[in-house]
Amino acid sequence: MRIIRNERRINLLGSIGKYATLAGLLTLLASLVISFTRPEWTVPMLVSLTLGFGLSVVGGSFADRYANPLAHHATLANALKGLDDQYTLLQYVLPASHVLLDPGGCTVFVVKAQGGEVTCQESGRWRHHQRGKFFRQFAGQEAVGAPDYEAERQSHKLERYLAKQLPDVEVDVRAAIVFVNPDVTLDATDSPVPAFYGKKVKAWLRGPGKRKPLPADVHRQIVEALGAD
Fold it and tell me: Which of 31, 85, 117, 189 is the least crowded, having the fewest Cβ atoms under 10 Å away?
């Protein structure tokens, strides 16, 4: 498998995540010091507290996505490792963050790195239970949210992009959700978008998710439109 990714964006946002988190912790510490040493400085203490909280959340979110051991680009690439050169993974270079170009079209992957128990209910609502979840989200861990909606939104963005690039070519664009945390317990039977553990993504691509190959000339046009040549 070939990988094309925006390393500059990954490095930049990963660094922002690390340093913003550190700055947030130091700012929160400063607000604590002020509260003990200068309790009459109410405004500076509140400003420091608010700024520290904001930096911690933003920094933690960026670090979680781009720099931590479960960084989305790295864990997804590792889950897809072993696919042959018919597959190209494009990360942060298209309107959708993670796009796999395979012989039959494009797959948009939404990566989730939460641990704990994740369930998609019959109503379509997602539930996430994890020990220490409040403190993890306080530190910047993103909520599970509605990954099926997110996947469909990114797929539509890619479809619009391809429609502009290749107005005369119909490209099959689909979406899938991949949970990459080895400590997650997943029940996504009722998800309207395929959702599975990272370790099962290759089996899905080679089995239920395998598509009929496109004609060589059409595939070549898609490759060129995505900048994957």
Answer: 85
Tell me which residue has tokens 């405004």: 43
Predicted confidence band of residue 23 (pLDDT cuts 50, 70, 90): confident
Tokens of 201: 């993504």
Tokens (6 digits) for 106: 């494009």
Q: Could you tell me the pLDDT band of residue 160, with boundaries at 50, 70 and 90?
A: very high
Query: What pTM was estimated for this model as a whole?
Result: 0.86
Alpha-carbon span 50 to 53, nearest angstrom: 5
Please compute, for residue 63, the number of CA atoms within 13 A of its CA located in the half-sphere on the CB side.
21
CB 62 within 8 A of CB 17: yes
Distance, CA of 61 to CA of 45 (rounded, Å): 24
H or E element, residue 74: helix 72-79
